[in-house]
Amino acid sequence: MSARRSGFFALLLVGFAPAGAAAEGGAEEAVIEAVRRHVAERVGVRTEDVDVGWLGLGAAWRCPPGAAVHVESSPREDFRGHADLRLTGVAGGEVCTDVRVRPRVTVWVEAPVAARPAEPGETVSLATGRVPLALLAGAPVEEGSGPWEARTHLDAGDPVTARVVRPVPDARRGDPVTLEVERGALRVTVAGRLVEDARLGEVVKVASPSTTGVVEGVLVEPDLVRAGGGR
């Protein structure tokens, strides 16, 4: 194999798979097992966590039993649906089959999921479930983190990622707060209301009839915001 080809494809020699020439079904099953091993190695999961759809090789697989099965895929392949693969069979030191296929590949992973349905703004109860990798939109939330609330509707069993939930805020938009504004040695305390949701330690905007415009400060307690200036 040329250096150019080996640089473009991630090659995994999956060993010897009995691609039975006497029965196309046996050959198909053997090659599927080789594909499963390749995908598992690339993604970092167990072979049993990989499902591969029908390859449709038929008479295209011309190798005898005992042929080695080579599976190649692009380094950019993410195995989140149909995967572009190159299959090469080698027997007696000679290539007996060289074909490209695009089977549907499903990789199953353990991930945080919604324990029960949740609507936007509701707290999400977490559980652990086995979900297709293709359904993980964004990074899964960390186990034991939170609490989280839904950004969108979630059904029980839906994967929970940063795209579909957000941390439950410590204070919400419209909540009354005390605003402490410091200007040099002068400290002014006025009443205000939050313009947005926030968690402790975050910068938040506060509106107050005692100030001009909106003041930004740090939420130090659920009902206390400290600011160094206004605008």
Mean pLDDT across all amino acids: 85
Summarize the amount of helix as a percent range: 10-25%
Kindly provide the radius of gyration, computed on alpha-carbon positions and rounded to a whole number of angstroms. 28 Å
Biggest sheet overview: 5 strands, mixed, barrel
In spatial order, strands of the major sheet run: 12-13-14-15-16
Q: How many separate structural domains?
A: 3
Number of strands: 16
State the end-to-end CA separation. 66 Å
- Strand composition percent: 35-45%
Number of helices: 2
Morphology call: elongated
**Structural class of the helix and strand makeup?**
mainly beta
Low-confidence regions: 1-23
Order of SSEs: HEHEEEEEEEEEEEEEEE
Structure keywords:
2 helices; 3 domains; 11% helix; SH3 type barrels; 4-stranded antiparallel β-sheet; elongated; Type Iii Antifreeze Protein Isoform Hplc 12; 5-stranded mixed beta barrel; 40% strand; 231 residues; mainly beta
